[in-house]
Queue: 2 jobs
Job 1
Amino acid sequence: MRIGVVTFPGSLDDRDAARAVRAVGAEAVALWHADRTLRDVDAVILPGGFSYGDYLRCGAIARFAPVMEELVPAAQGGLPVLGICNGFQILCESHLLPGALIRNDHRKFVCVDQKLRVENTSTTWTSDLELGSHIRIPLKNGEGGFVADVPTLERLEGDGRIVFRYAGKNPNGSYRAIAGITNERGNVVGLMPHPEHAIEEGFGPSTDGLAFFTSVLSRVAA
Amino acid sequence: MTVVSRVDTVESAAAGGDAVQPWRELGLKEDEYDNIREILGRRPTSAELAMYSVMWSEHCSYKSSKIHFALWGENTTDAMREKLLVGIGENAGVVDIGDGWAVTFKVESHNHPSYVEPYQGAATGVGGIVRDIMSMGARPIAVMDPLRFGNLHHPDTLRVLPGIVAGIGGYGNCLGLPNIGGEVVFDECYQGNPLVNALCVGAMRIEDIHLASARGAGNKVVLFGAKTGGDGIGGVSVLASETFDEGGPTKRPSVQVGDPFAEKVLIECCLELYAAKVVAGIQDLGGAGLSCATSELASNGDGGMRVELDLVPLRDASLRPEEILMSESQERMMAVVEPQHLDRFLEITDRWDVEATVIGEVTDGDRLVITWHGETIVDVPPRSVAHDGPVYQRPLGRPAYLDALQQNETRGLERPVTGQQLRATLLTLLGSPNLCDKSWVTKQYDRYVMGNTALAMPDDAGVVRVDEETGRGVAISTDCNGRFAKLDPYAGAQLALAEAYRNVATAGAVPLAVTDCLNFGSPEDPGVMWQFREAVRGIAEGCKALGIPVTGGNVSFYNQTGDIAIHPTPVVGVLGVMEDVTTRTSTGFQTDGSPVFLLGTTRAELDGSEWAHVVHRHLGGRPPSYDLDHEQRLAGVLTTAAREGYLDAAHDLSEGGLAQALAESVLRHGVGVRVSVKHVHEDPFVALFSESAGRVLVSAVPGSEDDLLALVEDAGVPTVRIGTVDTSVDGLIVDHLFEADLVELRDRHTGTLPAVFGP
Amino acid sequence: MGRIVVDVMLKPEILDPQGQAVAGALPRLGFDRITDVRQGKRFVLTVDGDVTEQHLTRAREAAETLLSNPVIEDVVAVTAEADA
């Protein structure tokens, strides 16, 4: 199975996302922002980082990259896409997911081991997780506050499209403590925390992140 | 119509005449100015004057410290040199860590800019040290920041601390470098002079080491990265009045502004250039910008260099040539490229959208010649600028106050006696600024990026994996107790070295090399110069005793306000190697039933301690004694025990003594412990709060204690069993003295910084 | 050379932590009659020659798609600036 990881200028966790892909036995395919091709991959990860320095708004410039011209229609057509942190911001800016991410309410960058509640295991990326369980993965960002208008929030709740919620104290002011959401089809998932940093014993707070990457393997193989 | 020359050329300088030059305003002394005239055989042009004035400044030339650095060489044996691939003198030292891997690391200061503009000062400090590491051919893999501030509750601390922390995080996080450790220290002496020291580590294969030299006539000199603007040229603007310009001196910013995105792109671009093997020599542009890069590259090389300054891409077209030479615009590098590799070089910079411009070439001969629109404005011997600057023999003398200070011991101070008094003292110290929890700071740093961080704050050392196949990696710690150094700079420096060495071993690594950042007051004060020399001597002789070399470092002078200098603060960084970082030892008790031991000897050594400082506002007496031979044997025990898996946890003892180490070890994972200190020292106050050196608190994996005891006995390390890890104990129980529960310990420990800076 | 100024503000209902921080800091300067602060962005676009209707139309498009995020921001003004 081939999973693409996009590198924009300023992407940081692309190597880590690739490592996570290889850790579950899939092939990580490097995708370059300026290339108008997805190289026939079975799924795509938009990794964390500071694409274009977070200038203008996080993900606002990356969203117009040539690779996104291929990615957006492919995602609309069912290609599995996982947006992590900056990747989530890019998905929102491209309107593949609703809402937006703004500055943390306490205005500081925060890096913590974050407890999340798993609320949707029907997506392509979360089928191997246990519904209602808690996982602990790193959260590290300055602009992680998820916001959306009330109708959007109600729709997300009603459709069960909130995939993760922050457990315990809200770390960044996200509305309804939303940490991650999915699109209507369940193939596009965006979340602020970093599963790719919770895959190896001794190098993260847990190995809870592995399930994200095994999920997509089983979904695509099926 | 004749065009009036607006630029001071070599031709006009050579023509003679009585030009009065602002050498004094540029910071030069009269004899230095005369020396320049002698070297050139004429007066310098204003561009040359600008170059010499900056390159011969204390910051760039180390003129007050150079003679003392002979001590490094005198104390480096052949055995020490063996592991060193690149020594002092290059941008950063490089050590061989085995398996074909080389690691480069260095710590630098950015103190004064951070006082002026905390965010940008700290941010550009990180940027600068990262570029130094990059220019050795390495991929930067981690950063650490030893920080020192004045009184926690002073309004100016509120002004500088949050900005400095945000700047370090803002720049380092955006670069994608995990921040794995550092220090946050508060002391009144730093009130007007906060210290921001920035460390960076990088890794590469041995064959990929690059050096900063320009060799081979005809090779191209390429400037790449950000455009050049007016950053950091404040003082040079006085030269504008030298010319025919009638507008008067322009106001130019003194503060450098960093763009971490530009630097991230530069890192990736450089690594691709190195991999393509198209770089013959490389230098980063830091302090003194182009002046430094060109003169150093040429000076280190085998010939000369010719540069056309008007080819430099500018952000501000109104900059004068002197200003361009002095500009400290960030995120710029200079490479020497063989002509046949130039196309490939430019192809790669293009792919990364990095601007690259050929601005000159390496020449035969031994002059650095710089032209501006065809006219020669600089023609100097590069060595005279970059390496043969003035060497001062500053007078030094033991400070007059030192005898009285050393005689003013803590012996007579009132001390806690009863269990309840000892308990209260522990809690007071636990919540005091230096000993309190620093999460408010460290949470603002990304520790996970790159996925190789095996250990980070609040553990004793930062540990990162270098080889993902084998697990080989490095551990680093930076330490300095400025109060000990004030009481005795030689001992204080050796204690700093011993502590960093011990911290690295506590994490399970074998110490290998040293870097240092020497922060001192004014070198014009003989007492400060004496402190400086004593500290350098201490580190040099200490390194020789421990068998690990100094690979490079930094000096920051003039950290004083009026007559009050900071405590001498020789920050020492030690790097160690681990064959497999997953065997590292962390602090924090974990396993129920683990026997707890204290390795090392506890004596009544309270002078300069945190207790004396917090409870009595007292500084006087002598720093703790120490034994470097003992430290070596102790380190051997810790690294072997880690490798063999005997240890449940280990924690170095330093400020706050055993009480602090116990509290931190309990708070780390919330696992309790029951101890008795009666075999540590007959006086429980001494047992709990003394700051004797060479001690580590360990808990052994149940079943391994015999193996551990065999190790310590073989090594001759005095050891006492003091208790057992006990998950049924809520917090800390010290037999016959007191108990403190987790909630109370945690509240005290974690409440201090948020109370001042917010949640 | 003409200039077009684009002003972008967060939608009123969106939390503005930076504006709040500024509002908290103003009293320290003796400015205690301010009841609220919102922070926005101002873009100055320089064009060759004078500003035309077409320039303004294109600028409005750029404002709606790139310079602002319509989910959380409003483009409050797109105006030609008179040459100084």
Note: The mean pLDDT of chain C is 90.
Job 2
Amino acid sequence: MTIRFTKDHEWISVDGTTGTVGITDYAQHALGDIVFVEVPEAGRELIVGGDAAVVESVKAASEVYSPVSGTVTEGNAALADNPALVNESPEDQAWFFKLTLSNPAELDELMDRTAYDAYVAGLE
Amino acid sequence: MAETTTFSGNRALQIEEPLIFELGSPGRLGIDLPEPPPVDEDRLAGLRRKAPIGLPDLSEPQVVRHYTRLSQKNYGIDSGFYPLGSCTMKHNPRLSEKMARLPGLVDLHPFQPQKTVQGALEVIDTLAGWLKGLTGMPAVAMSPAAGAHGEWCGLMAIRAYHDDHGQNQRRRVLVPESAHGTNPASAAMCGYSVDPVPATERGRVDVAALKAKLGDDVACIMVTNPNTCGLFEDEILEIARATHEAGAFFYCDGANYNAIVGRVRVADLGVDAMHINLHKTFSTPHGGGGPGAGPTVLSEKLAPYAPLPFVVHDADGLKLVEHAPQFQGEGKPFGRVKGYHGQFGVFIRALAYILSMGADGLRQASTDAVLNANYLLARLGDTLTPSFDGPCMHECLFDDRFLKDSGVTTLDFAKALIDEGFHPMTMYFPLVVHGALLMEPTETESKETLDGYIAVVQALAAKAKTGSAAEDFKAAPKYTPRRRLDETLAARTPVLRWKPGSNG
Amino acid sequence: MRYLPHTDSDRRAMLAAIGAKDADALFRDVPESARLDQPLDLPRHQSEMEVERAFARMAGKNLSAGCAPFFIGAGLYRHHVPAAVDQLLTRGEFLTSYTPYQPEVSQGTLQYLFEFQTQVALLTGMEVANASMYDGATACAEAAVMAARVTKRSKVILSGSLHPHYRETTETVLKYTGLECDTLAPDPLAMEDLIGRIDSRTACVIVQNPGFFGGIKDLRPLADECHAEGALLVVAVADPVSFGLIEPPGAMGADIVIGEGQSLGMGLQFGGPGLGLFATRDKYVRQMPGRLAGQTVDADGKRGFVLTLSTREQHIRREKATSNICTNSGLCALAFTMHLTLLGETGLTRLAELNHARAVQLETKLRRVKGLRVLGNAYFNEFAVYLGDDQDAAAVVDALADRGILGGVPASRFYPEWPELRPILLLAATETNTEADLDALVAALNEVL
């Protein structure tokens, strides 16, 4: 399993050609209490860096971009009833969607855990 | 705060008031009606309502008491200083309320024969004349119901012009990053894409960046002037020139017109269209969120596209034009923006204010508005952190650098101000500075009020900077009818109405 | 000037604190060519007395509805507003407060909005309502845009029963959005076939009930057909008093209900400011435009109210917002909710009965007018009459006005390009009409026709 991160604080966990995408702990902390999540439906085509989902706190709505290109296989239905899960378990249970990668080479453009942690440290 | 120790839960004049649905009793009446005339057969075609609606029944004394108590939980301009940036919370004159209740003016139906409402048309026409005279613009669309509505109206006229002149490739609108959210939202409604323009360190539009973005696919720029940071765009003439040279229009967001009314004609700045918020610059009451009015002045080129309806002078007097073919001139209205003839009740109030103030009074008003804001900037400049160098216009902008390491946020600071008897300034807008505090005192505040406010802000800032007061700030407000409310809960589990069986 | 507190001495002290020579120095960023050195050549300030005189003169040129037998409706109805409404409306804490951005000092506004939203949901038979929009016409346009968002389709069907201003406003708003309007002809006889126009591209059908020409219909078959095709049914209601007597749109299958609330609480006011009502089903709430007040608790656990679901709105979503709307019609919503609270279930029902009975009485008396025919046989408090083949209703209305009677509105005022509508007159009767009014109208019509 490979895990990669984007500069916009999305993470993607890849197993074969299946990716699972969410937002990082840094992101959920910056957003504050999450009140609503809109996940893509199965079948939707995503392009790398394009709009994929929306995450809302009380005072802000943020786009979640797809780290890679591909086709959505599943949106996380648990987030509809319990958006707070994003604050509680951002990098595990609160995954936003799964997709089949169309171009796995795009993963090389992303940061690994060490690089991402360094990037975040630089932001603060 | 100490718990309430009364049996009722009330605290003297602060009385807990349930919802009307929790107060009613079936059969009570707040209104008496005559008996209906006898009817042999109704004409309801079997569509008579079958189920109860579920409304509560109350008597007049209960109703009066209910709303009186609700009003006592509100802070208004009448209560005290209300320095919300870009909202222009100036005094709402009571003469306006009296004029807006003259039966000869308000007991009129918009579809009465026009000869029976010439006085009403004169109100609209007179106000329109003033707005054109003050701005130096040749035309005004009177019907938009609010500022955002006026923005959209101005943009629609611009789009209609471009499409009419074979320029329908112009689909991009340049909008400063500091713009109010209505600007891009209005542009999107006209089928435009929005291209943001950055600001300089001086808080103004980056003119070089703007020029680089101009092209023959740009329909217009939308610039607020004075801008949302409270600063006058000193390169405005160059901005207008470059925009016009590129074949685009200059839409001006007039939310901050109070800074320059009577001192600057916007036509002289190269503006092609500008909405005027009557509920800001022209003192009509904010009423808890509306109604307002957003008449939009238009240049010579855009005038033909002004929406229906509009008032013209003809041989018989004043005429309301409601359909395009009736217009004898070159009108090509882009359509209709709302029902009937505009926010007439708001027009009466704005005109009463304008007639009261006159050209000299309006000029003095903008002068005093700018004076007051600069006074706050000068007196608070050492205590808080001004975002930009002065002078400012009618509002002054600070950011939260002065709160660094204190544990106190802009939000906490604002809540503490509430306990001190002031309505907070605008918080977190514009987005271009961190933790913004935008203060607009307006000209109707006395020096004593400003000095009182300054003293309190200085005291609160000093307290915050001790670094050990964060907990106290986070507990504010303590003396209000309700303390901080859980907005997360409200958004996660929206409860947007009362339902039978729910409890308080 | 009475609204400007500063004396010259105040100004001098403040300029000294600022360190500016004079007030003009504060305007140094204004380009010199744009600076005005003195007040514009427009009238100077005036005393209250002088302003009152000016308005009295303008008011004196109008024939007000209370001074004549009055029968005009066409989307705005003359209802009697109880004295308590206006008295309460002018309380400074209501009149001079702003949008409730600081909820701790705005619980008055937030609670009445919550009550208003509940009342609108109950009246319309829907699940949720917003805190109001500018007016019925713009609410109609917003409903069309919302239906397109929800269904992801682009065609909006506008019934011939729809108020012409609602239709024109909707067509204007949709003009550059890529959405398409399929507008039916005006429908005075309530005979149009909407069902045949619905297809898989239809986002919504928008009808008005009671219609612009007064007719009421059972919308259930239309609702069923819309839903079978995956489209939404939007129903417009112009007189909120009709909710007192008629089956609500929610019970007939509407997905969105919009309306004009101005007739309750505000009076005619020459048509503005209006009060847009907007209600829908819970499942669509995040697609609904406009402000929303929601219930929550405060730090002490007490029930309170806040603005909520703000992320739909322009100040957060900007170009992706559900709408650009920034205000609601706050004070008008307050007037509406207070008026409706005074009425209550019992009062509203009686008021609606009275309106209908008066209209039926008018229809009966109009049988005494030669050549006149009432169109349709199902209405609430308004109907269309056909004056006769060669009659021009506009000329008739003019002649009635000369006799001191405000006798309805000619259809031609709204449809100048439809010659077949020239003989049609719209007449409304409310609780403010007396039997003497009706007799006066009948007598005058017999003279004029």
Note: Strands of chain A lie at 2-5, 10-15, 18-23, 34-38, 45-46, 51-57, 61-65, 70-75, 97-101.
